[in-house]
């Protein structure tokens, strides 16, 4: 068993069920802004938005500009209008990943220092954390939009380690993205636990996960 003293978590599609969250947002978006559509057409727009979003890895400004041009508006809606709607309402759709609270409680009772490292806008990511009731679990929360550094830049993980007072060789990183979570954390000296979600593993990556899990409840058998 590794000598682990600290654990860093990703947020989206690791502790927050982003699939559920984004689908819920899209359904509300279509209801509010495309209410003239029949139910079948509205559902097709929801599915199209989910595909275009590419699991959140699209540039948001480009994504909103594309939506403003391709969706079947009754009256034109600008990318800025879509951005404002997103910033105001997206976080309220957040839902916890299955077993997330149990996993965090287990890690806390084992005495690990816990931190969160996530890419995204400061206000939106903080709002998600608070909506999900996760803030009290973490000694540090590092958000790319607040720090000017994004995963997988090793510096964002090093910043989290410094604030946590932890060393990379006794810290694990848990996340769903092969590059942004496992590879990036590995470049900062940490072992990673890969939560399999929507991304296939890239066999060309020069860093592999220490462990791979399908659900967060498997953590209790590892740490």
Write the layout of secondary structure elements.
Layout: E1 6-9, H1 18-33, H2 39-53, H3 60-70, H4 79-89, H5 100-109, E2 113-118, H6 122-131, E3 140-143, H7 144-147, H8 154-164, E4 171-175, H9 178-187, E5 191-195, E6 211-213
Parallel strand pairs: 1-2, 1-4, 2-3, 4-5, 5-6
Helix pairs in contact: 1-2, 3-4
Keywords, please?
6-stranded parallel sheet, 223 residues, 6 strands, Rossmann fold, single chain, 44% helix, 2 domains, alpha/beta
Task: Walk across the major sheet and give the strand order.
Answer: 3-2-1-4-5-6
Order of helices and strands: EHHHHHEHEHHEHEE
**Reported CATH architecture of the largest domain:** 3-Layer(aba) Sandwich
The first-level CATH class name of the largest domain: Alpha Beta
What would CATH call the homologous superfamily of the largest domain? HAD superfamily/HAD-like
User: Please, what is the average pLDDT?
Assistant: 96
SS strand fraction: 5-15%
Report, as a whole number of angstroms, the end-to-end distance. Answer: 8 Å
> How many domain modules?
2
Task: Tell me the helix content.
Answer: 40-55%
Q: Radius of gyration in whole Å, from Cα?
A: 18 Å
Indicate the low-confidence ranges by residue numbers: none
Biggest pleated sheet: 6 strands, parallel
Structural class: alpha/beta
CATH topology of the largest domain: Rossmann fold
Number of helices: 9
């Amino acid at each position: 068993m590794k000598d682990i003293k600290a654990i860093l978590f990703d947020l989206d599609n690791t502790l927050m069920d982003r699939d559920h969250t984004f689908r819920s947002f899209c359904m509300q978006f279509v209801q509010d802004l495309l209410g003239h559509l029949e139910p079948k057409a509205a559902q097709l727009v929801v599915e199209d938005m989910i595909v275009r979003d590419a699991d959140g890895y699209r540039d948001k400004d480009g994504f909103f500009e594309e939506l403003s041009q391709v969706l079947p508006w009754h009256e034109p809606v600008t990318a800025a209008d879509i951005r404002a709607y997103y910033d105001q309402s997206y976080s309220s759709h957040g839902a916890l990943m299955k077993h997330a609270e149990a996993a965090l409680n287990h890690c806390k009772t084992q005495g690990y220092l816990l931190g969160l490292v996530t890419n995204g806008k400061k206000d939106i990511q903080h709002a998600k954390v608070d909506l999900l009731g996760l803030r009290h679990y973490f000694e540090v929360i590092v958000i790319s939009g607040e720090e000017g550094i994004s995963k997988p830049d090793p510096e964002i993980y090093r910043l989290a380690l410094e604030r946590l007072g932890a060393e990379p060789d006794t810290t694990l990183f848990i996340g769903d993205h092969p590059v942004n979570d496992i590879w990036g954390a590995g470049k900062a000296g940490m072992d990673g636990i890969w939560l399999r979600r929507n991304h296939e593993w890239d066999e060309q990556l020069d860093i592999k996960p220490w462990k791979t899990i399908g659900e967060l409840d498997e953590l209790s058998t590892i740490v």
